[in-house]
Amino acid sequence: MRKLAGRVALVTGGARGIGKAVVRVFAEEGASVLITDVLEAEGRALQEETGAATRFCGADVTSETDWATAVTVAEREFGPVSVLVNNAGVVEFGSIEETDPAAFRRVLDINLVGPWLGMRAVAPSMRSAGGGVILNVSSTAGLMGYASLGAYVASKWGLRGLTKAAALDLAADDIRVCSIHPGPIRTPMTAGMDDSVTISQPIARFGTPQEVARMALFLAADATYSTGSEFVVDGGATTGSMVLNPPQD
Ligand SMILES: NC(=O)c1ccc[n+]([C@@H]2O[C@H](COP(=O)([O-])OP(=O)(O)OC[C@H]3O[C@@H](n4cnc5c(N)ncnc54)[C@H](O)[C@@H]3O)[C@@H](O)[C@H]2O)c1
């Protein structure tokens, strides 16, 4: 039997990159999937490609109204939502002094407030489904710092912490909440980065969106004793430094 048969999933930022891979893998494993994104054309194209298992709903994760609409559409088309993947996110490069306050707030609004609004909007639906799983896509930037990425790092650490608070709040409703921490993954978000960013990793290459999607599948389908925890998909990037060699005699 397929691993997500009978489940209803909502994937934000599902039109491209990691979210698109999650939509495909979840649909292949039998889930009904509501794809949400601000990219209407890409979202509709994915819906056509994946067929009856999916629907698309244009929704901005920063809008409470859009969240209410998305949950209503998911319930109308498929039934109560039992898996939420808070994947939509943006990156903003700039040092602490260079980053414009409006840009800093925008990153927090999309990457942190968005998932929080999503958990609030989806929790009643999950309760009526008899429980569920929420996966918050953080980053290795939610486990360590990066130069010139202050807003992004703050948002992803925030999302990691929010995951733990949500796991505690929602446990009584049989809702598990975990965070996923990808390292460098080849998507439109990282299109401008070359392979050199991965040279000090034990697995010295970019990951694929499918490798993250398979972790999401494991967490949604099989990880029944995990909640509030972090799951890293980073080629070993956060394992330690490979720069120092042992001293020579
Ligand atoms: N690619 C990486 O190396 C990497 C590494 C770690 C974490 N991540 C995280 O993974 C997630 C997916 O990233 P990706 O690499 O696929 O990026 P991407 O830019 O390819 O896709 C992000 C998607 O989110 C959507 N989105 C952005 N703002 C939105 C909003 N306000 N409302 C709804 N949708 C919105 C975009 O339209 C896009 O479809 C993000 O949260 C990102 O921070 C990515």
Strand order of the largest sheet: 3-2-1-4-5-6-7
What fraction of residues sit in β-strands?
Answer: 15-25%
CATH class: Alpha Beta
Give the helix level as a range of percent.
40-55%
Question: Mean pLDDT score, rounded?
Answer: 97
What's the order of the H and E elements?
Answer: EHEHEHEHEHEHE
CATH architecture group name: 3-Layer(aba) Sandwich
Low-confidence stretches: none
CATH superfamily: NAD(P)-binding Rossmann-like Domain
Report the major sheet: 7 strands, parallel
Q: How many domains would you count in the coordinates?
A: 1
Beta strands, count = 7
Structural class by sheet pairing and helices: alpha/beta
Query: How many DSSP H or I helices?
Result: 6
Distance between the termini: 59 Å
- Kindly identify the CATH topology: Rossmann fold
C-alpha Rg, in Å?
Answer: 18 Å
Q: What does the overall shape look like?
A: globular
Bound molecules: nicotinamide-adenine-dinucleotide
Describe the 3D structure.
It is a single chain. Helix content is 40%, strand content 15%. It starts with 7 loop residues before the first strand and ends in a 16-residue tail after the last strand. The protein has one domain (8-233): Rossmann fold. The radius of gyration is 18 Å and the shape is globular. Strands 3-2-1-4-5-6-7 form a 7-stranded parallel beta sheet, with helices on both faces. It has 249 residues and is an alpha/beta fold. Strand 2 (32-37), helix 2 (40-50) and strand 3 form a beta-alpha-beta unit. The chain is built from 6 helices and 7 strands, in the order βαβαβαβαβαβαβ. The protein has helices at residues 17-28, 40-50, 64-77, 101-129, 150-170, 209-221, and strands spanning 8-12, 32-37, 54-58, 83-86, 132-137, 175-182, 230-233. The chain binds nicotinamide-adenine-dinucleotide. The site of nicotinamide-adenine-dinucleotide has 27 residues, from helix 1.
